[in-house]
Design goal:
The protein contains 4 helices and no strands. It is mainly alpha-helical. The protein starts with 9 loop residues before the first helix and ends in a 5-residue tail after the last helix.
């Protein structure tokens, strides 16, 4: 398998669920988005166990992750809609809408998981 990211990149932190500052500690308790939201239901860890970096940089910091979440949801919706129309060209608008709406609900834990990781990596730099 070819790695398209290296340890000191932001993509590494997002894909591997790492602390954006040290890339050693975890951001979420587990790497499974569905388990984090439905079973643990505790959110992110709050701070890195390795470097003690506080993930909430300022009050209201995570409001910006909503915009990332919106962009990811639109991306997944368009992707699902494109796949639906490539598989079956004769599908109705209502049925297509229902499938896309259900896919948004199904992808929501994944979108929530990655939107926070992407958002924090926009503002925090890796320190060796």
């Amino acid at each position: 398998m070819i790695k398209f990211y290296k340890k000191d990149s932001k993509l590494y932190s997002i894909v591997k669920n790492c602390c954006p500052k040290c890339h050693k500690g975890k951001f979420w308790p587990t790497d499974n988005p569905f388990k984090n939201i439905f079973i643990k239901n505790g959110g992110d860890l709050g701070c890195c166990k390795n470097c003690s970096f506080q993930f909430e940089i300022e009050p209201g910091f995570w409001f910006g992750a909503m915009y990332v979440s919106y962009a990811l949801s639109v991306f997944f919706s368009l992707l699902v809609w494109l796949i639906i129309n490539l598989i079956n060209e004769n599908i109705g608008v209502f049925m297509s809408f229902c499938i896309v709406a259900l896919s948004i609900v199904g992808f929501s834990p994944l979108v929530y998981f990655y939107s926070r990781l992407i958002w924090i990596n926009l503002f925090v730099a890796y320190e060796k």
